[in-house]
Structure formats: C-alpha cells, structure tokens
Target: Alkylation response protein AidB-like acyl-CoA dehydrogenase
Amino acid sequence: MSTYKAPLNDMRFVLYDVLGAEQEFARLGQTDATRDVLDAVFDEAARFTETVLAPLNETGDRIGCRFDKDTGAVTTPPGFKQAYAQFVEGGWTGLVSPVEFGGQGLPYTAGVPLKEMIDAANLAWGNFPLLSHGATDALLHHGEDWQREVFLKPLVDGTWTGTMCLTEPHCGTDLGLLKTRATPNGDGTHSITGTKIFITAGEHDMTDNIVHLVLAKLPDAPAGSKGISLFIVPKFKVARDGTQGDANAVRCGSIEHKMGIHGSATCVLNFDGAQGYLIGQPNKGLMAMFTMMNTARLGVGVQGLGLSDRAWQNALRYSRERLQGRSLSGVKFPDKPADPIIVQPDVRRMLLTCKALVEGGRAMSYHAGLQVDVSEHAPTQEEREQADALVGFLTPIVKACLTEWGIECTYQALQCFGGHGYIAEHGMEQLARDARITTLYEGTTGIQALDLLGRKIMQLQGAGLKIFLGMITQFCDAQSGNEGVAEFIGPLREKTAQWQQLTLQVGQRAKANPEEVGAASYDYLMYSGYVALAYWWARSAAAAAASRHSDAFKQAKLETARFYFARILPRTLAHAAAVGSAASTLTALDEAAFDA
Amino acid sequence: MSTYKAPLNDMRFVLYDVLGAEQEFARLGQTDATRDVLDAVFDEAARFTETVLAPLNETGDRIGCRFDKDTGAVTTPPGFKQAYAQFVEGGWTGLVSPVEFGGQGLPYTAGVPLKEMIDAANLAWGNFPLLSHGATDALLHHGEDWQREVFLKPLVDGTWTGTMCLTEPHCGTDLGLLKTRATPNGDGTHSITGTKIFITAGEHDMTDNIVHLVLAKLPDAPAGSKGISLFIVPKFKVARDGTQGDANAVRCGSIEHKMGIHGSATCVLNFDGAQGYLIGQPNKGLMAMFTMMNTARLGVGVQGLGLSDRAWQNALRYSRERLQGRSLSGVKFPDKPADPIIVQPDVRRMLLTCKALVEGGRAMSYHAGLQVDVSEHAPTQEEREQADALVGFLTPIVKACLTEWGIECTYQALQCFGGHGYIAEHGMEQLARDARITTLYEGTTGIQALDLLGRKIMQLQGAGLKIFLGMITQFCDAQSGNEGVAEFIGPLREKTAQWQQLTLQVGQRAKANPEEVGAASYDYLMYSGYVALAYWWARSAAAAAASRHSDAFKQAKLETARFYFARILPRTLAHAAAVGSAASTLTALDEAAFDA
Model:
C-alpha cells in the first residue's frame, strides 16, 4: 500500500519564503491569517489527512461506491461517511468561506495546501466536499438573498453538499446542445426535466440533502450557449423559509464503472419535473457556471499535484529500500548484497523529474491561489482587476499542466517500482488510474489550451500574459547581482523573450487562418507551463538560499533547479517547434484519408 | 466496447512496399513465403483475431483469471481455453517454428503481423502462447537432442505451453542475487527449490502440461550472474522417452492483482524439490535465457504497437461520430447539430500523433523482425553477423520506444473520448491499463536504455549503430533526385549526423565518469527511436508514392510524414539537450537531501 506524509516543510517554504504570503495577507487585510494560525491549521490538516483519509484510500478503490438500482441510493465505501462527519466536525468545509455564512473566513490560498493534502491522501473522497465549493461560489456571486440565506449556510457547514450538473449524454464541451428543460410553474419555481451524466457526488449517503446546480433551457431560450440558465435543484425540496420537504423528482439512474476514483460516485441523474429555483438572470447560466468552474479548475490542477506528490514520496522510499545491482562508479554499500537503486542515475532522473514537477508545481498553484485573494481583497480596483486577469491566465495553465504532470509523475514513480508497480498491493497503480481522470474532467487539456490561447491570449489581448511576463522580468532584474542564481537568469530571460515572440507569431498567423489558434494551442500551453515552472524554480532556488532552511534543503532546491533547467526545460524546444509549424500540418489530411 | 479491425492494408504496405519482404524471403531461400501464402495467412489471422480473440478482451478484463488456493489451480476467463484450442487447431502456434519439429517453417517476420493482431485483439490472451516461443528458442539453441525431441514438438504444436522463470521476490533486474537452488540427484536430474514471482502463464487450464524454464544456482556455482544455470521443469514430470508422469513438485502459490491484463495469469510459483533437467552448460544459464529474452523483447515492443493501433482505430471512429462544437474556419456540417470533433485541429493532433507512431512503429518493428530472418538465413556469414548486430541494436529501441509510444497512444486515444474515455464501457481505459505493463516487463525502459547505450553502443563499439546509420545514408543518397520526399532528406541527414556526434560525446565523457552512460541512457534511447522513426517515415512516404496504393493512401503517408517531421521529430531537441547535460545534474544531489 502506498503511504502519505503531508509535505509541510515544503508547503511552508512555498507560502512564506517563496510567495511571502504572510505579509501579503496582512497587506490584503486578511489579518486573521497569521503564520501561527495557518501553521496550526496545516498541522491539523496533516494529521486528519494522514490518519483519517489516507488509510481509506485503498479500500475506497477496492470496494468503491455501490448503487442500488431499486432505490437509486448510493452507498459510499466503508469509512467515507464517518470521515466526512469528522471533516464537518473539524470545521474544514467552511475554512475559506465567508464568516457571515458560518465559514472561518481564511484566505482562499489557505485552502490550497488543505486541498493538496486531501487529494494526495484520498482523491476519491475529496470529490465529495470539492463540489460544494463551486456551488458556494455560484450562490455567493449570483444567488438572491433568500437563496444565499437558505442554501449557503448548510453548504458552508457541510450539512449538505453541492453538485455541478452540466454534462448530458450528447454534450460535454459544447453546452449549447443541452436538452434539459426548465418550465416555469408560475409560483417562482421551475420544473426541471432532463438527464445529466458524469455528476460527481450526484448521490451519496454522507448528508441529508444535496444541492444540485443544474444547467437547463427555458421555453423561450435563444439557441446555443446564449440560452442556458442555472437552477438550484435540491435532492429534497427546500422551501423559501429553509424548511426541508419531500423528495424532489430527481433520481440517480446509475453510477459509472471507471478506470479509477472508484470511491467517487459519478452519477447519471434523471430530473423528471423536479422543483428548481432560477439562480441569477435567465439565459445567463453559463456565466454563473464559469464562476464555479474557474475555482474547480484550479482545484483539479491541485489534484494532479497531490497525486504526484504521493506517488513520488513512495517512489523515493522504494528507491532507497530496493537493493538491485551496483553503482557503475563503484560499490556504494559493500555491506549489502546490492546497492539501493537510488544510486542509479536513471532512477534519479525519474525521481528528480517528479521532484521538479511537484515542488515547482506547488509554487505555481499556490501563487495562482494567492492571486484569487488579491483579486478579491487588494486595496485598489486596478490591482484587483490585474489579479483577476492573472488568475484567468494562470487557471488553464495550472489545470492542464499540473494534471499532465500528474500523469507523468504517477507514471515515473510507478516505473521506479519495476514490475512491482503494476501490482495492486503497492498502491502505485491506483495513483496512476486515479490521476487519469484529471486531464479529462472540468475541461480536457485541449479545452484548457483553447481557453488559454483562444480566449485569454487572443480575445483578451494577452493581459494576463503581460502581467506574468512583467513579474518574471522584475524578478530577473532584482536578481541581477545574485551569483547564487545567475546561471538561471539568462535562460529564463531567453525563454521569456521567446514566449512573447511565439505569441505574436501565432497571433499574426491567426489573422490569416483561424485554425492556427487550435493548431498551436496545446503546444503553446505546454510551452507556457514549462517556462512558468522555470520561473518558479529560479525563484525557489533564490528563496531557499535566502531562507533559514537547512543546508540540505538549500542544496536540494539548487540542484533540482539545475536539473530542471538542464533536462526538463529543453522540452520547450520541441513545443516551440510545434507552435511554429503551420496549421496545415494538422489540417491538410482529408478526413476520409486518415485510414485510407 | 472498443472494436478491432486488423490493418491488413498497412501491414502489407510495410512488408511489401517499404521492406520488399517478398524479394528478401526469396533471396534468403525462404521459398515457401510467397506473397500468396503470406496474404492467405494474414487474412485468416485477421479473421481469427477479429472474431475469436477480440470479443473475449472485455470479459477477460472484467472476469480475469481465478485462483483456487486449495488446489493451486488457475482458471482462465470464459472463452480463453476454447480460443486457445482453436488457435492450436489452426496451426498458429508453430507458424514460424522449424518444419522438423512440426512447425510451418515460415519466416520469423511473418509472425510479427500475427503477433500484432493477437496483441491488439486480446493482449492478455496473447501472453499464454507468447512465452512458448521463448522456451522453443532456448531449447532449439541450447537443448540436448533428447530434450528437443521430447519438449519441442508439444511446444510447437501447442499441446503444451512454456514459461520463463527468472524473477524472485528480491530480484528482477539483478539476477545475480537469485536464491533458487538446483541439487543434482545423481541420475541426470536436479531437484529445484525456490520461489519465482511474476511468472506469466505460470499456471492455467489451457493445456495438459506446462514447461517451465527456470534459472537456478548449482551447489558449487560462482557468485553473481556467472553462477546461474537454466533448467527444464515441467508441471507434470516427463521422462527422457517423452512419457508424461506424476505432478512435479511445483505449485502456484497465488496470482497477482494487477492494474491490467487481468486475463493473463501472473503467478507465484513455488518449487519444492521439483524434478528438472539442466539445459545447456552449467553456469551458462543467463546466456541461454538471453536467447529467449531477445525475441520476447521484440514481442513486447509489438504488444505496444498492437495496443496503440487498436486505441487509435477507436479514437478515429469516435472523433468522426462525436458531434460537438463547430470548426473555427466555418461550419463543416450545417445539416448536423454540431461538427464532428475530427474537424478540430487539436483532435487531429492527437489522432496524427497516434497514426505517426503506430504506422512508423510498424515499419520499425517489422524491419527488426526481418533482420532476425537475415541473421539466420543470409547466404554469407558476414551478412548474418551484421544482421545479428543490427537485431541486437534495434531490440532495445523497438522494445522501449514502441511500449513508451503505446503509453502515449493509449493516452491520446482515450483523451479523444473526453470523459467517456474514463468509463469502462468504452474499452479505452482497459487499453491504457493493459499498455502500462509493457514498459515494465521483459526489462523496463531504463534497462533497455542501458542495454542500448552501455552494451550495444559502448561495449560493442556501436557496430549495430554503424550499420543502421549506413542504411539511412544509403537511402538519403538514393533519394537525392526524388522531389517527392526532398523535404525530409535534409532534416534526416542532419539528425543522423547529430546522432553520431552525441554518441561520440557520451563516449568521451564516459571515459572520465562511468555514470555518464546511465545518466544519458534514457534520453539517448528516445532520441534514437525518434530519428529511426524519421527514417521510416521518409521511407514510407517514398514507398507510398512509388506504390500502386490509392491516392488517398499516398496523401495520408505524405501528410503524416510531414506531421511527424514538423511536430514529433522536434522532441529530439529536448532529448539531445538532456544527453548533452553532464551526469552531475543527476548525481550531485545527496541521496539524503532528496526530501530534506
């Protein structure tokens, strides 16, 4: 079985030494978020995730959720319900929610390490509370007063959970095609009818009620995505005064048999004239849904990070324990029958790949989280808008890259185990199977790529990119006299300049041919992720050197940065070449000739 | 459920148009292997694999092998045993085995497309007959006359199957550590005692007997890998006159619960004084085992190819069927509610990546197979030796690259399905889980990389590389006037020159520091694979243009070659940069500081 230990030391390094979060929270007026408070929160989160959630991970996978087709009920794996009760008891569900609705009001950023720990400990379990955050956000930003009053408190305190009901059998990415209908009843309620699929936590036994946020079309709705509205549809009816009534006309039709996250209930939900309340404006549902989706996307990125971290922790342990062969530069452990495989350079390549992607990815995602706080609490509107643009720009990069790297890290970590990695009892294959969902849900990597290049760069004139490039340049300028990181500054400046050129180049080509954006998008996205990570590694090396961490810690940051620049960053060469290729290399082949 | 259609058209293109196999077989005196005969064989193989094996793939995964701990018996999934009986009935087990032992004596090359079809149709099932080939080879090359007489015929005609028993709980790669003991009984037999793990097809219900080839140590054996001997240990004892006797003292202790290939029995075998016969010379067992391993490694490479092909066939079908969104360059199917996703450039990127890796990999692996025939049947010893060196050089590339690409193709193909790819009923996730074993067994990718760079390049002075580079240069020279492929020749020459330089560079560095080989090995391997594939794509484009295939087929080869050169071959830039990095980027970090 794989084990998990929360990487508190590195989490704190990222928050305090790299990002200066403590000072930042003070500046933003989030005065409760002192280092003492946060450290206590993280210590307790580590205890909870390591001792309560992590031990349930293997049984959750093996036993999975059970579906009773007679009643439509879903039973979660043994221990999941009790763990959720403890989670609620500990006040975790409202950690970063507003005090006015019963939350603890800590910064959004503080929720990111918590989420990383939950996902590393037990990704499938983590999906139950996860979606409540999206529902909370949508209600906060788009709900009427009474809706916030009635639905927010139980979502924040964990009495109820939430869902996001978007996908239908024939449409996922293209929501304009959806068929679910909402008919006004004349009393302020609507009757919702249709079938939704892939609904995470759509049915379960953890709470007394579930609040579904459902996309549907009103009778007079315009065609396509401009005619979508959002509705609150609770599993048990809830009156405007908050009293809970009879079962609503929504029923779980089945749960999916999946490659992984067996402990997470992925439901087909059949709405058959279910009572619902419109949330926000008619036909503006997609915008409200995007509010939920953005933080959900950052959250899925963090899922990739958590799984990667757990995988590499175990690979490191195994590589130190497994005795096999001898070092080529001479026997390292003459008293043992063989040397541990960590002496092999190629095993170190796999371990360092994970370490570089995990720790760099941690800085990248925590920084994105911090920008969410800045976008809400910065003193000036200009700064809030800038941070908002930055979050919009970083979200597809964090979501896509951290999940793609999650695939890679769980792959490399499993590979360190050799054939043993393929055997269920070591737990590595579960991590690989669980990771596989993360590049699919909340928008595939391809969709993130289009969001980045098509929307955040082309449509918004690269506002977020400009801010981010400015940050890199500012850092490089500030480090100009620092010999400890001088080796990284030149290559970083070079890549930053190339990033700008590539962006202009694609923009030019897109004027003549709109297919150029789609053709370049994936490689542009990955290029961006690797350059961003180079920035985070240079900053991490600089921050470590200036910190009070141990010499071993400083050595590890410096050598991992060197490894990253020498052996991972060159992947940008391949991605840049692909971005530089004409769209015709993808579009020239006749569709019918693919299998001629 | 995923479907499978044998790609006979492309298989024939590779064999006849790219490789000129028909003329080659005639030159080698393999006169039975006419195009008529081979085409009939492939047609029948397609029918068998598509209609008998492919439909058992999903149930094989879902039900898997069952183990009875009271009897030690393994029951294969429903239909597997009957399919094996049909396979034996059809004479498939001996397709490429010598006529003198009951085989059909066709070239080794003819077995490669057969194997590709079997693996694509049902990888788990394919593992049962697979290991018989290794046992057959070992007996052919190292067995005494009576051993060949008694054991070969039933292995060739499929009455019995074979295994390779190498791995033990504490040793896989480092066989010098093995503990299984062989004690001479004084009557020409030995008593074998020890535990072997990860034994594919180690126990099953398909045949009356199983021939285990077991590595063990004689009492006076030298330490390490120089003291390993190979033994024949049948499940039921077999006398020297071939009569089958009582059960031998070998028992299956359990079968592994794995990420995939659930229909393949991966056994723990406990030998408790089992009767065995020494095969080959005492203490020379490793060499005999390498005979089995080389063809087994090529075979596992072909497993990666088969899975990739099945995955991409299904992704192509789905991408044509799934309607979602509209083409950015204007609506393509106005009569439909949305365009099929194949109009999206990024979906085409994923499909073309698969197509390029599958079809290029097919040429690469069939060519390696052809060299096995040349190494055995060429008229001059010099040519046979050259082909043998080439096979040795190509084997780790084919094994490692085709399986790594199998991971990538099953990933990309699943990704084309979006969230539906994660659901079991579509069958894509099974392909991804099954593919995951291929970069592990028969030597991990890291082990292949060391075999290539450490052994085939450094120890053998790059004999195989020189021959292969000569082939590429000869091709480039011959095409100098061919405008149809001129765009590929320049880049191919450039990469070929760089391949030589990188090889010399690592060789130089390795003189000063032996760790340089291990540090460069993986990236050197992948670099080699991508340049080799560039050669096969240039040759494929040239061969297609000169062939009688359809215009659509010719367009597809040309455009896929262009895609490959523009968007995949640039990965060599990243691998070359990593090869060029000093070993210190991997070795500098103190082992204890990895998680400081």
Observations:
- Chain B touches chain A through 102 residues (CB under 8 Å).
- The first helix of chain B runs from residue 8 to 18.
- Chain B is about 55% helix and 10% strand.
